[in-house]
Structure formats: structure tokens, C-alpha cells
Write the C-alpha cells for this entry.
Amino acid sequence: MHDGRFSSLEEVVEHYSTGIHRRATLDPNLAKHPDSGLRLNSADKAALVAFLKTLTAGTPAATASAPNTIGGWTHYAGSTGGVLQDYYSWNKSTNGAVSTVTTYATTDLVNDAVAWINARTVGGQRWVAWVAFNAPHTPFHNPPASLHSYGSNPATNLLKYRAAVEAMDTEIGRLLLSVNTATTDIIFVGDNGTPGPVIQAPYDSSHSKDTLYEGGTRVPLVIRGPSVVSGGRVSGALVHVVDLFSTVLELAGVPLPTSVTLDSMSLKPVLANQSPGVRTRMYNEQFMQSNTAAGGRVIRDDRYKLIRYNNGIDELYDLQASPSDTGNLLAGGLNPIYQPFYNRLRFNLGGYSAAVTPAALSHSVSTSGFSLTVPENVAATQTMWQCTDLDFWAPVTGALRTSASGKVTFTAPPPLPEKCFYSILTELP
């Protein structure tokens, strides 16, 4: 269970609820959790265990009702899997009751959504609907010809994919006719990049879905409604899909939870045209629990993007010059012009690591320079960094290192800057 220390899901949840025991092999997803643990109450622990069991050993009946019993939806109709084997014959769960449906899946989803929304409208109720399309997705197929302009039998997978996109667009148009757009906020977002077999220029299959490149991680996001001021704008704000959590709650007037640490940041200031963005950095990762050496991590700002693969290889891109991640700036030696931007992202990435350096044990200033002592992490690389603005960090040139008794001391040599901040960066791999 997990890394072999636990015999049950209950033990896993209890462990991470009461305290994080950090080690070099800690799952990066837990790196930012507080040392004191998640501090879940008994009900939350039980709900989390129940949800995890639906992912690991849940019965078909439990899986069918999971959107209601675990997800908390008062009404759910649709597939409980991400991939349909056949868009014209698929299993549908309606509040736990499973049936085989032969209506084209995209059309059936909109039929249900329109009926549900209309019932809420007639009753004068406020509502939130999550309408999650399986399309466009494999298997590549021929959607009903009435929903697209590619004919009854598109000849290639690319044409089938385009037809599925247009069919979805047609049905979304029908969905929007059922809502009052003057009083309804509408969010449209993709879940991942385009599959390799059908991706198009400027991307290729090596920069598609399931990669850390822009073709795998950049998705469309369109928001319209009364909360959008000066509509028709194109925003360059950095947005992560986790931000939709806080955004939707704020738009609905629901208080954000205060008992847990949220990565999500509300986009309401951007929608209200009060701010160009709510983030200065954005983090993504790709990991496989069955092969922890595969995958990697990404951190980017509004222009530069650093990819660090789990094998220790770094790639750096200027997305302003190359929006499709071509021209690795680290290949063949880094131009000194880009060194400050690489250093900044490299230091920022350290904040998303399981090997975050603990608080300093001591510090001192002497004729030998400025010294900083921290716990030693023999499984990681530790280096001394400095900056004057808490933004552009850089390695300390000529820093001395001494270690003893589980502690490591770094000393920045003189002459020391008049004003400077120091930190120890701990990096894995």
C-alpha cells in the first residue's frame, strides 16, 4: 500500500492526516502539505477512504453511485469512465442506476443537461451544472452527419476527430440556448492536449497529449456571463485548471474552505478586469506511480518555461519566441542573457519539491563571510543562493561548504553585498 509501509487505506489516510513524515522518496504531490498533516475530521477521513476504495477495488455498483455518494452530486447522469468504447452503445449511470444507451453520447449528455436546467429554471432555483463531454476522444468515430460538415464517413482519423469537435460544438450551441446568458456564467475548458495521432502544426506527436510541452498542457479556456466585465477580451493570465475550484465557488457566493491549504486561486479579478492575472508562476507535473523515474515537472512564468525530467535533464524555453517549445535554450550551452531567468525558475521549482529545505539552524556574519547552517540532506543536492529583491535568485559564487553531525554549513565569501537575502536550495533529482 503506497510505498509498502501501510496495509490498508485507513492507515494511509490516518498517516497523512496526522503528520507528514518527509523522506527522499515522498510523493511530490505531498510536498506542499503541512508538516502537521491534513488534519481531517472523522467524517472527512471516512469519505476519503470510501472514495479511494472506488478507485482501487470498488464494485460496479459502488462505482456507478460514486458521483452521488462520494462526489456529493445530488443528480448525476452519464458515464463514470473517461473513455467510451463505443459512442453509440455505452453504459450510463443515472444516480447509480446503470443502463445501456444507444443515443450518440454527446447528444445524450446535452439532452440530459437541457432537461435538468429547464427544470431548475421553471422552479426558480439557482443551479450549477457540470457538463463533461467524453468527445473528442478515442475511439475515432463518425458522429451523426447532421452535427458536422465532414460528411457521413470522414476518411481519416484527423477528419473524424474534427467531426467530433464540430459535433460537440453544435450540441454546445443547443445547450446554450437553454440558459439565460444574461444571468448565467459559462465556463468552457479542455482537459488536456491533443492526442499525438491527430495533433497539428506547430505541434507534433512528441509535443502532444501526455507530454509536458505546450501541446500537452495548454488547453482552451473561455468564460462568458455577467461576471465578465468588458467581454471579448483575450487574457494572457497564467491559469491552472485548479483555479476553477475557487473561481466557481466565488461566483456562486460559496465561502472558500479555510481548514485546508488551497492551490486554487480565483480568477474573479481577471473576469472583472481588475487585474491582468492572479499568478506569477505556474507548476505542472507528470508522474507514474508504477515508474517514478518517468515523467517530470514544469515551472513557468509569463515568458520562460523550465522542464525538469525525473532523470535530471533540464530544458528551458522562451515561450514568447517559441510558443510550441522548440529551441531548448540549454542545448549547446546557455546564453548569459538567459541565465537570470533560468536561475529564477530553478529556484522557484525547489519550492515544489519533496526535498524542501527545513528552516535554518543558525546563521552568522564574520570576516569569513555570511554563514548559514541547515540540516543536511545526503540524498539531494544542496547549494547556497542569494538575491537582493526576493525574485531573481542566483547561486552564490565561491560558497564554501562544510558538513558534520547531520548538519551542513554554507559560507558566502566577502565582500558581502550591502543588502542581500540568502537561502539554501535543495534539489531532487
About this structure: The CA atoms of residues 19 and 65 lie 32 Å apart. DSSP finds nine helices and 16 strands in the chain. Confidence is low (pLDDT under 50) at residues 23-32. The two ends are 24 Å apart (CA to CA).
